[in-house]
Protein 1
Amino acid sequence: MEFNFYMPVRIVAGENCVRKNAALFAPFGRSALIVTGKSSARNGSLADVQAALASNGQAYAVYDQIPPNPTVGSVEEGARIAREAGASFVVAVGGGSPMDAAKAIAMLARQGSEGSIFTRAIGADVLPMVHVPTTAGTGSEVTPYAILNNDEKQTKTSISAPSLFPKIAFLDARYTQSLPRSETVNTAVDAISHAVEGMLSVRAGTLSDAVARESLHWLLGEYDALRGGELSPRSRQNLLYGATLAGIVIANTGTTPVHGMGYCLTYFHGVPHGRANGLLLPAFLRVCLRKDEARTAPVFAALGMGPAEFSDRIAALLGARETYDDATLHDYARRAAANKNVRNCAVLMEEGDLYGVFRSSVGA
Ligand code: NAP
Ligand code: ZN
């Protein structure tokens, strides 16, 4: 048995856990920058964080201008505000977009904005972060990744460093109750994709596989609720728990070409991140099974179903698929083949394989 597993994030879960554990914010200093989007003001998460900070006598500024699929401009602006406010730590409140943006802001606030954020070495000097997810999908609250729009390369690019792990993740599923069905499905499918891709990573090991199987147990256990769109507080808790587990998986394994391919659909067409992965994942798994049955069979065992049933079930969640013409898909396969995720996959995927996945998933 051989593995190398790292998880430095304190994870605190439960109803009202932010206010109940307000004292955990205290060691991070006098002043916070809260990084968020627009929905946190409506689902109670922002108010809970503000109350927790106020109860410790900690000051805060709020930067709520993070768009879905965060841009370099938005994180540079956030870093400027963090420096002006004298922030000693960052609190991220929202989905993957504000949570990822907060990591880049925490880094730039300490290290300055000179040079490309995508190629520079990320040092250890990063403001400490506390993450409060309001979607159940990305797992960003437990990963060292921040994914930003990279306009020079026309894709989304991940930056990563051990210093980008948050110190604390607070999981309160009440905040996800206000998510519309489509966002709930998209983010849950993202988490399923993380668990599956983690099992197919060259860095997968006994422990990350165990966490991935556990994650799939919780996520797929809510399949009927996701399909029907009736999500009880218990279902919301299970999805958030499953998504965080899947985040723990990819924190250790990284992702595979599914994510690299999905970035094309998101960057060029605005397909939501989780939906993009879900559109591609079933066909990707079929190619994996054909090329390396021994490596792929355990994934289907963890899913508890075969390739055809998995395709049907994901398709039923996602509804009518987007389609793109052949020249576009050849271009995307070429782009995705250049992504570092390809080398992270235990099943070798050539550009032609990626084109085949695109074609059978979103071909016209
Ligand atoms: P998101 O882009 O953060 O949010 C999607 C939409 O949902 C936004 O309009 C957001 O509005 C809204 N929203 C968030 N929480 C809500 C709530 N509780 N109720 C109602 N609306 C809510 O979506 P996401 O799928 O969570 O994150 C996707 C991003 O994460 C992508 O950029 C992706 O690349 C990245 N990602 C990161 C990792 C990682 O390891 N770091 C892993 C996978 C994906 P507001 O933002 O205005 O509030
Ligand atoms: Zn993802």
Protein 2
Amino acid sequence: MTEEQLLGPQEIRDLAAALGIRPTKTLGQNFVIDPNTIRRIIAAAEISPDETVLEVGPGLGSLTLGILDAAKDMVAVEIDPPLAEQLPATIAKFRPGAEGRIDVILSDALKVTELPRVPSALVANLPYNVAVPVLLHLFATFPSIEHALVMVQDEVADRLSARPGSKIYGVPSVKANWFAQVSKAGVIGTNVFWPAPKIKSGLVAFKRRQQLLSDIPREEVFAVVDTAFAQRRKTLRAALAGWAGSAARAGEILEAAGISPQERGEKLDIHGFIAIAEAARRLPELEQAGEGA
Ligand code: SAM
């Protein structure tokens, strides 16, 4: 079987010239011009031939063609009108016959709440300035997404996959862990893009958890995470004082959760934050039971 053509520097330059586009920083437009990088991303994404893939920010279509070769069908969500309008023609040219296997949606991925197909995977070279919010929004909004492989700035890749106790462990690491098991899947140099960004990129793989870690609403857990990391150098007792109503109350909640009030948020994994949110709910009942005894 001959390998299908992927977009290289010449094709990307021609497409951009035909559209008269100049990549913008605001929309994180760095287009992949290297077929080998596309092959690496597709291999790391572990897409099965029966899958429906969601791609965010297809741009000029570099990754889109690779996804179409690996998946059953796909949805691509692009915010930039000229790019979204051009994509079907690019597919018709480079993958004649595949047009019916893709829906292109002109939209901000942060605002998408419905899709014309049900995706089981997310594969994307994400716009760097909104990568983490887009990821969290999509995992929260589309429970059908079982796994994901995304390219982000390398430092964001490290942060997303960081473990408790590390300096870069923070809000993105914990929140991503609520949804999925997260691991770094590689580093990509700068010269595979046009225009070349200043910093390297990283690949991150996500496997959605089979079961929710807790029945407690996600927002309640995330509120604890946001508060704990807003003052990450403080003890949890101090950092959570405002959220709990007082430092003393925060101390009681932490003790009820089995966590030392002197601990710092950066040492807790997602289970620790869930235990705090659960204890905050349980505590009034515990007190009443204590009073009645
Ligand atoms: N996938 C292409 C590639 O690998 O060459 C382009 C990737 S480029 C890093 C990011 C793409 O996301 C751009 O096409 C940009 O227009 C698009 N984009 C930026 N913000 C977006 C948003 N909020 N929703 C959807 N697409 C967005």
